[in-house]
Structure formats: structure tokens, C-alpha cells
Amino acid sequence: METFEIRKMRKHQFVLFNCLLVVVLSLYLGFAINFSITMAQSNLIIAIITLSTAIFTFITRNHPTSIFPILKQVQAYEKRKLGDEWKKQRKTTYISQFILSGLLFMQYFITRTINEPLYERAVLVPIIVIFIVIIAAINIALLLHNRKVDRSISPAEMRGYTKNANIIGGAIGIIIGISLFVFIITYVMLTG
Fold it and tell me: Which pairs with CB-CB distance under 8 Å and at least 24 residues apart come from 46-53?
């Protein structure tokens, strides 16, 4: 694949991914606020979506599959570039999704008796800040991943990439989580 074609494909991937991200987060937030869903209901909805995604990823684990042609093209390209690391990445993805959906189902059962709405218009500002941080973190991770994959010459060069990416991603996730926690506590203390 030529450099121009790769850039065009990555640009389409970036635009589609961000559009989907903004639409999904906006729909979720609008739904959550307008229907006053509880934490338990929110956890249940996200758990079902995550479990469905995990099952789909598990079933199609060895084949590039997507309802969006550009994402299928990206997966096929990355499968060629990553070699065995692509399968490791897919395996890590569906295992993580199964674990996350299990934790969310457990969270649902723990919080199912709490009937207070999870989101209210009064806390819209910190929620939007959190969504912006999530979108920024996902975009940065996507850009770094794309850069690493596109610059690799052979699959042998990518050995250990999945493990390293997961370790770095976990560390950055912890830092972002702590930062958001501090932000939320500070916001509640200053406004409450």
C-alpha cells in the first residue's frame, strides 16, 4: 500500500472514529439525562454493549470484520503489518471486554437498589470535561498506534508491541483516572 493511500485510509479512520465517538457519547449522555437513568441502569446498558462487542470480537477474532468498510480495510492492513501481534491484540481486546462486562454486571447488581439519577444537568460541566479527556486520550492512543504500525517495516519489528502497549496504556489510564478523580473531588468541593 502506497504512503498516499495509507494517509487517506488513516484520515478516514480518524474522522469516522471521532464521529462515532462523539455520536455515541452524546446519545448516551442525552439518554442518561433525559430519562434519569440510575447508576445500575447505566452499568447494565454499558455491560450489555461491552459483552456484545466482546462476543463479536471473539467470533471474528482471526478475520478483519467491521460494518464500516474503512475499518475493515484498516484491520486487514494492520493484520499484514503486525503479523502474530495482530492476533495477540485481538485476543487481549476480547478478553479485556469480557472482564470489563463482568465487572459492569457485578457493579449493576451491587448498585441496583440505588434509585437516584446518575446524571443531572447540574453536573453537566464535569461530565463534559470527562468526555473530552476520554476523547483526547483515545485519539492520542490511536495516533501513536497508527504511527508505530505505519512506520514498521516487518512483523518481526513489532514483536512484543501488544504487551508494551498494554503496559503503557495501563499506566497512562491510572494517571488519567487519578487526575479525573482529583478533578471531580475538587469540583464537588468548590461547587457543593
Answer: 46/104, 47/101, 47/104, 47/105, 47/107, 47/108, 48/101, 50/97, 50/100, 50/101, 50/104, 51/97, 51/98, 51/101, 51/105, 53/97
pTM of the model: 0.82
Identity at 72, one-letter amino acid code? K
Question: Could you read off the pLDDT of 39-97 as tens digits, one per residue?
Answer: 889 889 999 999 999 999 999 888 888 889 999 999 999 999 988 999 999 999 999 99
Return the bridge partners of 117, or none.
38
d(CA 18, CA 20): 5
* Tens digits of residue pLDDT in 85-103: 999 999 999 999 999 999 9
Rounded to the nearest 5 degrees, what angle is found at the Cα of 112, between the Cα atoms of 20 and 133? 30
Cβ distance 192 to 119 under 8 Å? no
Block residue for cell numbers 457485578: 106
Q: Is 118 helix (H, G, I), strand (E, B) or coil?
A: coil
Helix runs in the chain, H state only: 3-34, 39-59, 69-82, 84-111, 124-151, 161-191
- Output the nine-digit C-alpha cell for 1: 500500500
